[in-house]
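Example record

One chain of 446 residues, shown exactly as stored in the release files.
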Amino acid sequence: MSARYQVTGSTAVEISASIESGIRTGALPADAALPAVRTLAVDLAVSPATVARAYQDLRQRGLVATAGRHGTRVRARPTVTVGRSALRPPPAPGTRDLSAGEPDATLLPQLGPHLAALAAAKTPTIGYADAGTLPDLADTARRRLAADGVPVGEVTLTGGALDGIERVLDAHLRHGDPVAVEDPGWANLLDLVAALGLRPIGVPVDDDGPTEAGVRAALAAGARALIVTSRAQNPTGAAVSADRARALRTLLADRPDLLLVEDDHAAELARVPLHPLVGATGSWAFVRSVSKPYGPDLRLAVLTGDDTTVARVAGRSRVGAGWVSTVLQRLVLSLWRDPGTTDLVDRAGADYERRRNALLSALAAHGLTGHGRSGINVWLPVPDETAAVTALRDAGWSLAPGAPFRLAAPPAVRVTVSTLTDADIAPLAAAIASALHPSPRTGLTA
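Predicted structure tokens for this chain:
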């Protein structure tokens, strides 16, 4: 724990509030270790049970996580507002940042011409009574989903993929319910599950998606929901294959009570066929965001599912946020209909695929096996994340440690390839190989 911050309090509520204040102000940064329960109990002259209750409250609210023998630590994205610098340390000056997990800004469509065209159209202003999902956008979304084999009924809109997943979970689950999640998996989703007070059950992931044995074990452990990334899985690049989809659909057919949530955040960028699982259970939702192909600032996702799930999500939205801006809806519809934008997205997907495969091949030439069937990231197992990230930083490269993405999966680092150039590939692979297999020191011996 930071030597500058001292936890105070004589009750569980006061201790919890003191730690939350430290997280909120940044005095307790992401991944900071908290004292052991008995140590803090002695320091504060309270019982260990009092400190344990405080830690339990913080865990249930998504502020801290317990990491076995590594103790209790501040989560990477705690559920209080803190500065971004406290969430992800900035890359060291002079290094190439390959840690962000964002698309290449030069391969995103320019929004200006589309916004200008919308302004020139002089569309009547939408009032409260008429707001909602635009029929043209809903019809276009249905056709796009159906073309990929997704069973489509009613559709609704949410403010991005994570917002859609949160609304689906909230519509079906209650505090403490067990949820099967990919391990390693999307860090934001793991934090959301913690913030909702749900209990994550890790499901191992290979290149073809969640393993059948892992899903079977999660179901046996009582999972009430399963969340799967269709393709371009973050951080591993996994994509559910046809064979894996067939096996999982057979397995899930015996669990009609299970909530199945499928996230296709990369959509057209993935460059591999979609093999959806949704429809195998009675309650399901399929979420597709526009952020990766068209721009992170476009906070819109299309959500379809069984009638009950869609009705619950749409109804809850109606009494909260109300609707996704119709200006944003018209902008997305304009992008979907523009052949030039379609070509740009296709080119971006091809570029990411080329960069990703080039890095995987270069790593293989050094005897290193990375993972990345699709998407913008490569996942590389390492013996020690801290040592690897530090050595690569010293060599001029900033990579993301795997810890925020893992529950029980072994150590690894994530490399975002979206901004890599052809000239970067060989020196990056060599630097990674050197960091993982440093040359023995030479010198005189006795």
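Notes: The longest strand covers residues 199-206.
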